[in-house]
Amino acid sequence: MAEPNVFAGAYVDRSGDKREDPRWLKTALSSPEARFAPVWRDKCLASGDPPRIALLTHRDMDPLLQDSATVFLGVFNGRPSFAVDVDCVNDAPFEHAGEFHDLRYLGSVLPADEANLVAHAIAVVHWHHVQKFCGLCGAPTAVECGGTTRLCTAADCTARLFPRVDPAIIVLVTRGDSCLLGRQKSWPEGRYSTIAGFVEPGESLEDAVCREVLEETNVAVRDVQYHSSQPWPFPSSLMLGFTAAGGSEVIRLNDAELEDAQWFSRKECCSGFPKLPFKLSIARRLIDDWLKEE
């Protein structure tokens, strides 16, 4: 079985049944075995060379450990593990334990299981930041089920709110010995990547692949095949990877999403131009797997 993409993999026992058990959660939170991943400014704490995630104890976390800012992530390496929102402090805390780094850096240096854990931690803490009020009635919301949901506090509403994930397709389109790559104007010079876009309401994943490629490049595709997926918490996407065959060759930039799009041969993809996506991304995984097929 192929290795999971970066940030993916079932390394954490999310213990869904325990989320609904307040007594178990209280015991787990106060246990000396509990470990805490502080999240500050959408960053997580790491230390060492090579870097490893810094999971803290109760003693380390005091006085920043508050139930309302704590999210149960699951059981990791046999210990109940929690994300803790520490945005309440202006300067980065816990200097003695390590440094805070963003997710792109952590995904490139941490072991696979730890990258999976920090992606979960950062994503769910971000969701709590943006879901403080009910989208139905506007009333404040409160943390529920160990931080895995929020509950509207209005007596005539009480809507339960779940973390949002935005599905997006990403596809490597090939035609013979060439693949279709595009670039956005804001990217570093020479950087090209696979075609991607968000799935629209009432649309299947396969339909989204065909639509996005046609909208962005005017290339019609066929033989759409699922490849793999990758959580991409920047801040809340789920990338759904596909391959497809190009049914046409002429490129036209229909919607101005891309600055340029071209067909590149395998030889060109290995030559240094175009500059390929970073190795932690599913875009690079799609390209690398295609290159290996030769």
Index terms:
294 residues; 7 helices; 23% helix; 6-stranded mixed beta sheet; single chain
Strand-helix topology:
Elements lengths: L21 H9 L4 E6 L2 E5 L4 E2 L4 H4 L8 E7 L2 E7 L13 E3 L1 H7 L2 H19 L10 E4 L4 E4 L7 E2 L4 E10 L2 E6 L11 E4 L6 H13 L3 E12 L4 E10 L13 E6 H4 L12 H12 L1
Parallel strand pairs: 1-5, 10-14
Antiparallel strand pairs: 1-2, 2-3, 2-6, 4-5, 7-8, 8-9, 10-11, 10-12, 11-15, 13-14
H/E series: HEEEHEEEHHEEEEEEHEEEHH
Please give the share of residues in helix: 10-25%
Mean of all residue-level pLDDT scores: 95
Which ranges are low-confidence, i.e. pLDDT below 50, for 5 or more consecutive residues?
none
Number of strands: 15
CA-based shape: globular
* Proportion of beta-strand residues: 25-35%
Cα-based radius of gyration, to the nearest Å: 22 Å
Report the sheet with the most strands, covering strand number, pairing sense and barrel closure: 6 strands, mixed
Q: Class by helix and strand content?
A: alpha+beta
Q: Helix tally?
A: 7
End-to-end separation in angstroms reads: 20 Å
Q: Can you put this structure into words, describing what you see?
A:
With 294 residues, the protein is of the alpha+beta class. The chain is 23% helix and 30% strand. The chain is built from seven helices and 15 strands. The chain has helices at 22-30, 58-61, 103-109, 112-130, 205-217, 266-269, 282-293; strands at residues 35-40, 43-47, 52-53, 70-76, 79-85, 99-101, 141-144, 149-152, 160-161, 166-175, 178-183, 195-198, 221-232, 237-246, 260-265. The strands form three sheets. Strands 1, 2, 3, 4, 5 and 6 form a six-stranded mixed beta sheet that branches. A hairpin with a 2-residue loop joins strand 4 and strand 5. Helix 3 (103-109) packs antiparallel against helix 4.
